[in-house]
Automatic annotation (TrEMBL), chain A:
It holds the Pfam family AUX_IAA. Homodimers and heterodimers. InterPro entries: AUX/IAA_dom, AUX_IAA, PB1-like. The keyword Disulfide bond does not apply. It comes from the Eukaryota. Residues 182-227 are annotated as: Disordered. Residues 262-350 form the PB1 domain. This is Auxin-responsive protein. One of its GO terms (cellular component) is nucleus. Aux/IAA proteins are short-lived transcriptional factors that function as repressors of early auxin response genes at low auxin concentrations. Belongs to the Aux/IAA family.
Automatic annotation (TrEMBL), chain B:
The lineage of its organism: Eukaryota, Viridiplantae, Streptophyta, Embryophyta, Tracheophyta. One of its GO terms (molecular function) is auxin binding. Pathway: Protein modification; protein ubiquitination. InterPro entries: COI1_F-box, F-box-like_dom_sf, F-box_dom, Leu-rich_rpt_Cys-con_subtyp, LRR_dom_sf, Transp_inhibit. It is found in: Nucleus. It comes from the Eukaryota. PANTHER family: F-BOX/TPR REPEAT PROTEIN POF3 (PTHR16134), PROTEIN AUXIN SIGNALING F-BOX 3 (PTHR16134:SF45). This is F-box domain-containing protein.
Length: 350, 612
């Protein structure tokens, strides 16, 4: 698709257009298409980044663009857009004038290259890798009302050259799990990125959000299997997620091998000669888990045992079994990732 | 001109009769704006009321305006609540609505709720208060248990013979009238025709809710309990089906095994819509043979779903006879059917108009769909492997094949591994009739893997080609450019979902300025901030709602907006650090949800929601 024709209205926007036109002249020469670039907001925007690289596609993707149709009218809310005329009307409300007419310094070249760098450097980059390229643009291009991002660009450029992905506070991976989910039942593979991003999110709270924070965890090098789980992505209803998880659990049992749905943890009972492993995903309530464990360990004589557990604990993966149901001396506990012994049952099963 | 002049002299009954032909609530809304007398006639004659945002108005005012309301549709939480972005006690309670209607003596016959919190208490009140309740449809709701369903099933009420309203002939078949004392065990009048539970989170109380349908209940037309997790009394179910001869739609849950299904189908060959439970049996058994012959008698089935949790692929051939007539097929929960089996099944389904399937069908399977299902209008391809260890997926190839093979396609939801601009451009050329186009790349910011470009051009082609596009969801690497295209071309767009997209405020501005018909805009994790938010504050009164989370909007801007626009509720949701009056205005807002309202800030907002 050939890029939209965005026109610079020479006189229409006052002195602002001078800088804008010079910027767009640059981009036009980049494009080499000889098209008049119209810029409805009086700014040269980053879209020319894409325009310049899209020219290769224009051969096979000719779509006739109606000049009139490309003008974006800004009208009163709710009004139908009247016939578009070549004179773009800025907001009738006029609130926007000052800030938007403020020109962008065409250091977008820097942005162009950083965008391209981010996306070109690998085939099929994992999500975490691509997101590394974007937020520095986001973070630098728009603090409140600040359209002069030259300084910020330089900043991000130097930081980028250090080769680390950065995140502004809220953009990018929002891996903070909602309350009630944090920390108790993540799989071991997810733990790394989850923890790191929690730290990151905490670190950015309360401080200026305009700074780009250096990402401590090495997102660029995380293995594909340990792709960080973004809250709410992919956008599937919770009901569907839960239902399919149950199905995949059934499938695993049928196949007899641990599939993506299985979550095995070691269970030890005080005084038992050996430990067992259970798949947490095959249960849906604490009740089920504890009755299953009870059955599993019923062959052992239940006695009073005070011995402390086995050495070599993995994160979150050991429980000592004590039998709640029968009112004997046993309760279920587990060690969470902070190394604290917790009573099973406090946190919602999910 | 002349006709309009004459219309004023028509008696109101005539106007009312004319308005009867207006089915859509939008048409009725338009008509009621014409003049005072039309407003009056319309409001007294409106029976079906649609409330897109339950907090835009209070129930008392709805009832006051539409006293003859018989059917109410309510929507509660914002759409992103589906994806765990809205804390669970945010709101959306139906109880106040039921209470108000009960107090006012509304003759409620139908209640349809989406994304609302429905307590057992509400269901009990509903059952007690509305003797003519015929239809209850709950979609993506939560807060109730099977005990609440038992209350609906029992539907205790007494109606003296004289006041009995004769409804549809269907509803009256087999009706038994008993004047008796009110006890749950005694059969009473029961009008319930439809109980439809779609994808709700229901707590199972191990009660026998299905057995609570009294023997006199013979009016059921539609029963869908596929989302229930617990066991059901199979004998009660079979008896229920046997005595409800008008049953057209039956969707079972996973706890109903194949042998029960076979018995049910023997009793209900008139079914039009069937949802199986689990589908596992020995294909060499007697039961399976009986199932095959039962299925062959079900010549009316046009819609099939289910295959929940357990599926034995070798039992699938039993349903091949149904497939020939199917117009709607939902296999999106059948994760245990392999793509080869799916393909075999699809080969029989040449009349399909709607297909919901998992991505394990693969691009090749979609090719088979494309060559077989020429009548296809709606396709949804869901991801089967949510935890991301990368097994079967679909790519742009599948989508292109579908677009080439299915010219009537107008609605798509497509979860895929990757997408290219070239593919989207091709799809746009092949299918200019899209009304809904939702694309979701599993990696939310993945570029076009061939050119490494953002997907701006692809989506641009879609909006330019599909002039009737009403709903769009974007994903993949996207810059401000795609929003420029959307603003320029998507003139009919009503709902837009944005995630991890854009570079600057301009993106959001393009959309707000260009899309005149925009009703719902939801944005997450995108760099849109205060400038975009405050550019055109009046716009938000033309929209139902705006959601922005993990964007660059600050508290100060939200306050400014709230101050300027008193008829908007600007809700700030901060779960982690509570925002209050002492917070710095420059602090970014984690989640903001604003919506137009006639009734000011809601009173049931929890602690972490602050209406500015």
């Amino acid at each position: 698709m050939s890029p939209p024709l965005m026109g610079v209205e020479g006189g229409g926007q006052g002195n602002v257009s001078l800088m804008a036109s010079s910027a767009s002249m640059d981009s036009i020469s980049q494009k080499g298409l000889g098209l008049k670039e119209r810029n409805y907001l009086g700014l040269s925007d980053c879209s020319s980044v894409d325009s310049s690289t899209v020219s290769s596609l224009s051969e096979e993707n000719k779509i006739n663009l109606n000049l009139k149709a490309t003008e974006l009218r800004l009208g009163l809310p709710g009004s139908q857009s009247p016939e578009r005329d070549p004179e773009p009307n800025l907001l009738s409300s006029g609130k926007l004038d000052e800030k938007l007419l403020f020109p962008l310094i065409p250091s977008k070249d820097g942005i162009c290259s950083s965008v391209q760098k981010a996306v070109v450097s690998g085939n099929k980059r994992g999500y975490s890798d691509t997101i590394g390229g974007l937020p520095e643009m986001k973070g630098s291009m728009f603090s409140e009302g600040n359209w002069m991002f030259n300084a910020a660009v330089t900043d991000s450029e130097t930081q980028k050259s250090a080769g680390q992905a950065k995140f502004s506070g809220n953009a990018g991976m929002n891996v903070m799990l909602p309350s009630g989910l944090s920390g108790t039942q993540p799989t071991t593979v997810k733990d790394g990125p989850t923890k790191a991003s929690q730290e990151r999110a905490h670190a950015t709270n309360g401080t200026s959000h305009n700074h780009n924070k250096v990402n401590g965890s090495n997102n660029n090098t995380s293995p594909p299997a340990a792709k960080a789980q973004v809250v709410g992505w992919p956008p599937i209803r919770a009901y569907r997620k839960n239902t399919l998880a149950t199905s995949s659990k059934n499938n695993d049992e049928v196949d007899g091998k641990p599939g993506p749905g299985a979550l095995f943890v070691k269970v030890s009972m005080d005084g038992a000669p050996y430990l067992r492993k259970v798949d947490l995903r095959s249960y849906s309530t604490y009740q089920e888990l504890s009755s299953a464990l009870e059955k599993m360990f019923s062959c052992f004589t239940l006695g009073q045992c005070e011995s402390q557990g086995a050495p070599g604990r993995e994160m979150l993966s050991e429980s000592k079994l004590r039998d709640l149901l029968h009112g004997s001396e046993y309760v279920l506990t587990y060690e969470d990732k902070d190394g604290d012994w917790m009573l099973v049952g406090d946190v919602p099963w999910e | 001109m002349c006709l309009a002049y004459m219309m004023n002299y028509f008696p109101e009954e005539v106007l009312e009769h004319v308005f009867d032909f207006l089915a859509s609530h939008r048409d009725r809304n338009a008509v009621s704006l014409v003049c005072q007398s039309w407003y009056r006639v319309e409001r007294f004659s409106r029976e079906k009321v649609f409330i897109g945002n339950c907090y835009a108005i209070i129930p008392e005012r709805v009832i006051a305006r539409f006293p003859r309301v018989r059917s109410l549709t309510l929507k509660g939480k914002p759409h992103f609540a589906d994806f765990n972005l809205v804390p669970s006690d945010w709101g959306g309670f139906v109880l106040p609505w039921i209470e108000a209607m009960a107090r006012s003596g509304v003759n409620l016959e139908e209640l349809r709720l989406k994304r609302m919190v429905v307590s057992d208490e509400s269901l009990e009140l509903l059952a007690r208060s509305f003797p003519n309740l015929r239809s209850l449809v709950l979609v993506s709701c939560e807060g109730f248990t099977t005990d609440g369903l038992a209350a609906i099933a029992s539907n205790c009420s007494v109606t003296p013979l004289g006041e009995l309203a004769i409804g549809d002939a269907d509803a009256m078949v087999g009706l038994i009238l008993v004047l008796a004392m009110i006890t749950p065990k005694v059969a009473l009048t029961l009008f319930l025709m439809e109980l439809d539970l779609q994808e709700n989170e229901v707590e199972d109380c191990r009660g026998q809710w299905l057995s609570c349908f009294p023997d006199s209940c013979t009016s059921l037309v539609s029963l869908n309990f596929a989302c229930l997790k617990g066991e059901v009394n199979l004998a009660a179910l079979e008896r229920l089906v046997a005595r409800n001869h008008n049953l057209r739609s039956l969707r079972l849950n996973h706890a109903v095994p194949l042998d029960a299904l076979q018995k049910i189908l023997m009793q209900a060959p008139q079914l039009v819509d069937l949802g199986t439970g689990s589908y596992v049996h020995d294909p060499d058994s007697d039961t399976y043979n009986k199932l095959k012959s039962a299925v062959q008698k079900c010549t009316s089935i046009r819609s099939l779903s289910g295959f929940l949790e357990d599926v034995a692929p070798r039992c699938l051939p039993a349903i091949y006879p149904i497939c020939l007539n199917l117009t709607s097929l939902n296999l999106s929960y059948a994760s245990l059917i392999h793509s080869s089996e799916l393909i075999k099944l699809i080969h029989h389904c040449s009349q399909l108009q709607r297909l919901w399937i998992l991505d394990c069908i693969g691009d090749k399977g979609l090719g088979v769909v494309a060559s077989t299902c020429k009548e296809l209008q709606e396709l949804r391809v869901f991801p089967s492997d949510i935890y991301g260890v990368g097994s079967a997926v679909v790519t742009e190839e599948g989508l292109v094949a579908i677009s080439a093979g299915c010219p009537k396609l107008n609605s798509i939801l497509y979860f895929c591994q990757q997408m290219t601009n070239a593919a989207l451009i091709t799809v746009a050329k092949n299918c200019p009739n899209f009304i809904r186009f939702r694309l979701c790349t599993l990696n939310p910011t993945i570029p076009d893997p061939v050119t490494m470009q953002p997907l701006d051009e692809g989506f641009g082609a879609i909006v330019q080609s599909c002039k009737g596009l009403k709903r769009l969801s974007l994903s993949g690497l996207l810059t401000d450019q795609v929003f420029l295209y959307i603003g320029m071309y998507a003139e009919q767009l009503e709902m837009l979902s944005v995630a991890f997209a854009g570079n600057s405020d301009k993106g959001m501005l393009y959309v707000l300025n260009g899309c005149k018909k925009l009703k719902k805009l939801e944005i997450r994790d995108s760099p849109f901030g205060n400038v975009a938010l405050l550019a055109d504050v009046g716009k938000y009164e033309t929209m139902r709602s705006l959601w922005m989370s993990s964007c660059e909007v600050t508290l100060g801007a939200c306050k400014t907006l709230a101050k300027k626009m008193p008829r908007l509720n600007v809700e700030v949701i901060n779960e982690n650090d509570l925002i209050d009056a002492s917070s710095d205005d420059r602090q970014k807002v984690e989640k903001m949800y604003l919506y137009r309202t006639l009734v000011g800030p809601r009173e049931d907002a929890p602690e972490f929601v602050w209406t500015l």
